[in-house]
Amino acid sequence: MITDLQNILSTNIKGMKRSAIRELLKFLGQPGLISFSGGFPSPLSFPIEELKSIIAEVMENEAAFALQYGTTEGDDLLRTMLANRYKANGIDVTKDNIIITTASQQALDLISKMFIDPGDDVIVGLPSYLGALQAFGSYGANMIGIPMDDEGEDPNLMEEALKDLASKGKKPKFIYLIPDFQNPTGITMSERRRKEMLELAHKYDVLILEDSPYRELRYEGETQRTLYELDGTGQVVILGTFSKIFCPGFRIGWVVGNPDVLDKIVVGKQATDLCTPPFTQRIAARYMEKGYLDPKIEDIKKMYSVKQKVMLESLEKYMPEEMKWTHPQGGLFLMVTGPEDLDTNALLLECIKEANVAYVAGNSFFCNGKGYNTMRLNFSYESIETNIEGCKRLGSFFKKVLQK
Amino acid sequence: MITDLQNILSTNIKGMKRSAIRELLKFLGQPGLISFSGGFPSPLSFPIEELKSIIAEVMENEAAFALQYGTTEGDDLLRTMLANRYKANGIDVTKDNIIITTASQQALDLISKMFIDPGDDVIVGLPSYLGALQAFGSYGANMIGIPMDDEGEDPNLMEEALKDLASKGKKPKFIYLIPDFQNPTGITMSERRRKEMLELAHKYDVLILEDSPYRELRYEGETQRTLYELDGTGQVVILGTFSKIFCPGFRIGWVVGNPDVLDKIVVGKQATDLCTPPFTQRIAARYMEKGYLDPKIEDIKKMYSVKQKVMLESLEKYMPEEMKWTHPQGGLFLMVTGPEDLDTNALLLECIKEANVAYVAGNSFFCNGKGYNTMRLNFSYESIETNIEGCKRLGSFFKKVLQK
């Protein structure tokens, strides 16, 4: 073995840590552990029977195509199906506005590769999705976190940040937003706030990255128009994924945007993995073509809305009154906030060992290194009964902690 | 749309071009086009019938697992199967020495991310695999090309390069080699040369990246031991892939190496795509478990050895005598060299339009911007008859060109 492995690592990788969430996966095997940690969909949401017949058809009719290399842009049929679906929802795109990625995490990586030189600024929510922070960080981005209220990122603080950068002759490479059922807070951006964000993006000539993995999973309230639609000028890029509405095991995501932007992403993707698996892409395309996706999403919404309701009720019942939490209208997560001096990071292992419940310590989502008194809970993965039991255990655990 | 897209791109992406090979894929739809260009396996090599039954079993018995998120390291069963297969071939590894990647292109990307800061040196063959040059280049590597003879990279020139760097207080981040049926030349490194490379790697304390996508496809001569085995000290990292011996459409590759190196790759992969599709990984694991892989490789070798023989005979018959080519003992490619002033780059479109044959202009494989008089031909994709017809057309085309 070479003698100086640690020394010859790239600057960016030296600064990277293993994902707290991915590392938690190791505990998932622990007997009786209740996991509120990952962003796992319920296995009961997977369309296993539909897939059986579709896969058999693909293997019968087009195996030689599906098992071969594909184009870097992605399966044309899948891109067309996605474009048609956006069009049906009032978003005017064709397949040329869409490329397929190896789930949306790869889109985050490729967009980082495309824009970020070490030290470049990027604006994110405070808090925001850990995987995005990791992707941006892996290219040396300087992240500027904008605190959120219950309508989304604060527009005044956003403008302050943009003005401050402009005063130094700089602008951020992009603004990263998750307008629908944000990860980790579950907060949905109001239409007014969406328009304010777009005004700022236009005023300061900045691209917006609209990450929308949970958008389809609304359990109550009115659907908000996407930033992409409200903008209409090509200044917004949407990231989509099948991971929460179909299955994560296929690793299929996509980017919707201006062809000029997509073209550069494709160049980066050629060097990164050549193409997303044509096999899973073709199965997904046929699945959409047969019209299975939309009824399935309705099923999933029914399933998760009950789980969410039960979790909210259980938290109300079992959590100490010093703790508060968000009340999302959809998605997979909610965020709990405790007293200022609570440290969910320090308590996590104890909670897993004593209460046999896992959460994600909120600190991971705060690019400013704060948020120690918060935690993210997922309600999609465990069964209703287990969600109740988990909240009960979590409540007892934190009651004991706060009494000390 | 923002006004200055070109200006705000990262330094690395500004320097990247679309892959010549990936772009050629666009012509594959042209009627009657004979493609010697891609590194496509024959669709007849895909184990469609075996896969039908395995996929049905996976969907019946373990769909909820295969459709869910997986660990970043990869499917444990697949890693175990791969480790067992290496062990059976005399290479002493366990699953802890193996991680799964989204085909070996991703391994090249992740290893680049792990080691390369802009301006860092990397040693490659002259010529070498275009996708590797792109991956290294996408992180700003400075590539030092070492000319090859018929035993592989020249050890004297290699030592000169290492000495020269050392005299400047530098060393390369790694030496990238494809010892078996190299891409694009088809050349296999002799055992003597392998040992010389390892001596240099030890003397100068440099990691070797042993890319081995074609290793299993030997049609004549004796199998050489891997650099990994000859080394035995953990200074070599192997990149493997199913793309040429199973199917590329699953996008499954792997890295074999010292756990310290793998650990850093995993950290990078978490931010890049979270995990390789668990669905295709589990199918591949069951395929190996049932013992299908090795007999299939024997079938593929029989199929391709005939194709290679036919291409060599046809080139002999049809090509102008000013042109020479390599005579590989395996793999998917051979390299043709013409007179010094030939420019295969400039002639490619003409060749596609007039002769309806596509090759890859050799220039793409030379990190020093040379090699204009070379081209790479693939013999695995087209049928035997088409290979003959393609060589005939290619021969007429170049005879005409050289007579001018």
Automatic annotation (TrEMBL), chains A, B:
Keywords: Aminotransferase, Pyridoxal phosphate, Transferase. Transmembrane segments: none annotated. Its cofactor is pyridoxal 5'-phosphate. Its EC number is 2.6.1.44. CDD domains: AAT_like (cd00609). Residues 53-393 form the Aminotransferase class I/classII large domain. GO terms for molecular function: alanine-glyoxylate transaminase activity; pyridoxal phosphate binding. InterPro entries: Aminotransferase_I/II_large, Class-I_PLP-dep_aminotransf, PyrdxlP-dep_Trfase, PyrdxlP-dep_Trfase_major, PyrdxlP-dep_Trfase_small. It comes from the Bacteria. The keyword Transferase applies. GO terms for biological process: alpha-amino acid metabolic process. Homodimer. Belongs to the class-I pyridoxal-phosphate-dependent aminotransferase family. This is Alanine--glyoxylate aminotransferase (Alanine--glyoxylate transaminase) (Agt). It comes from Cloacimonas acidaminovorans (strain Evry).
